[in-house]
Design a protein that fits this description.
Strand content: 15-25%
Number of strands: 4
Shape: flat
Structural class: alpha+beta
Distance between the termini: 26 Å
Helix content: 25-40%
Signal peptide: 1-16
Number of domains: 1
Largest sheet: 4 strands, antiparallel
Order of helices and strands: HEEEEHH
Number of helices: 3
Keywords: Signal
Length: 102
Amino acid sequence: MFVVSASYVSLLQAVATRCCLPYISTICEYTPDGTLLCGIEPELPTIISFPYSQRRFFLTSVQLGQSMSFEEAAFHAVCYLQSIYGFVVMDYSFQGLLQYER
């Protein structure tokens, strides 16, 4: 038996492509007290009413490793972008397919 999990980072990359975001970067920073923060920085496209590019930062403290921190930050970035663009993430898990079949 094995477990397959979806990556929020790869989902975020797909969303960024579909939404024509200029770029998305991963960042790591240390706070003054030495805590390591990892996160995602998407840049939103310029819009007429706000002529400058907008950047958002989604940071999480590293507790279970950097990759898990990036996944958590990417999840929050996807949720934020979903509130702006209104896209739907399809669930292709076995349970989701069973519910769809009924």
